[in-house]
């Protein structure tokens, strides 16, 4: 609750990475990935006489309300709506933030919690209030809170004269940073992500990836995250556990240069360079903010993915944004492509080639192939030959991931693995259903390493218990419409 004492307006981000949105019908609420929409803005009001409760007002001047109307007949969930209460004493518009460090739960007066639903329609993107009893849905009541406007800061709390002399927008930015540091203490959590990672890719708020351009000098953001230019190797700064270096596929470092992006503007270019001596310009400090990360230079500026019209569009700079609408431009989603412990394991066996449906054979005149990634076991699980594969009697290693509507890997689930005994695709699908990760019907797919496209698996699995990597595509997703099932 201490966090909301300085909040004038906030955005609420669900466990699915979607934002709580007030619909244009001025009655319903839902989840949306469009966090820049005005409907995602909620004004914070305090309940008079109770400093533990708040109200959240939409842009339509209606309040987030825990209604008594069932979402579906026979279900325990009730609808969450936008309403104008009949009186100021209407308890259905009052919410108690419960801060388990970060994220936050919002409890209604009836004891139920604001809940962001996932799964197939009609649940998908809906918002209800309920008490989740299943282990799989415990995270559905957790919300990340983004400050997008704060109350006038009390600069008397700052000890340095230089801080007292800052303009109000700079004071706001400092206060936001101060709140995240001391109320949530998440800097170390961001560093923990990079300590686990050997290779990462960074996705901006515009759903584009940080790319090292082919000229081996510039960087940009593009939607294609499967190319090698989107891979960044993580190095640690010696004698400093709070900063990292990011090396491109060309062996050059992500660098905060002193060159202005445009004359007269504060943003400066971010480049790929290979300095003779590794200095502070190639060092970045990861700072956690919700489910995303900010990357701060030694000079206090942030890696920024620009939007808007050219020449800003798709360019990367380092800067400190003071405009409210640009606060998200310094937030990055970190996808771990290779874990650090994998670097210490023996090399995988050669990839196995299997035929799959959906490939175009016209270019090569030969059957298409898929390279299936191998998995290494720990030392006590290796067989006598030391090749890192499980014994034939134990089965094969299956690594799997789940994609969302847009075909992106669902980061809430991540990559998982298990041992599977069998050679049939149908048997593997049954085994994956028993894993109970996807609650609906799905198609079992492989990814073409050449273009990144997904194709259904229809053949027998590779022989000799070779490790495999598969992708689960829910049939209700948009991706499933792109191929014949």
The CATH topology assignment of the largest domain is Trefoil (Acidic Fibroblast Growth Factor, subunit A)
Q: Outline the biggest β-sheet.
A: 5 strands, mixed
Give Rg in angstroms.
25 Å
Order of the strands making up the biggest sheet: 28-27-31-29-30
Q: Give the % helix.
A: under 10%
Number of helices: 4
State which percent range the strand residues make up. Answer: 25-35%
Task: Report the strand count.
Answer: 31
Q: Could you name the CATH class of the largest domain?
A: Mainly Beta
Number of domains: 3
Mean pLDDT: 76
Decide which structural class fits the backbone.
mainly beta
Oligomer: single chain
Shape descriptor = globular
Low-confidence stretches: 152-187, 351-392
Write the CATH architecture name of the largest domain: Trefoil
What does this structure look like?
The chain is mainly beta and 485 residues long. The protein folds into three domains: 2-151, Trefoil (Trefoil (Acidic Fibroblast Growth Factor, subunit A)), CATH 2.80.10.50; 186-340, Trefoil (Acidic Fibroblast Growth Factor, subunit A) (Trefoil), CATH 2.80.10.50; 345-482, no CATH class. The chain has four helices and 31 strands. The protein has helices at residues 161-164, 168-184, 187-196, 425-435, and strands at 7-13, 19-22, 29-32, 42-46, 54-57, 63-70, 78-83, 95-99, 104-108, 113-116, 127-130, 144-150, 197-204, 209-212, 219-222, 232-236, 244-247, 253-260, 268-273, 285-289, 292-296, 302-305, 316-319, 332-339, 353-354, 370-371, 396-402, 416-420, 442-447, 454-456, 468-474. Strands 28-27-31-29-30 form a five-stranded mixed beta sheet, with helices on one face. Strand 20 (285-289) and strand 21 form a beta hairpin. The longest helix has 17 residues, at 168-184. Residues 152-187 and 351-392 have low confidence and may be disordered.
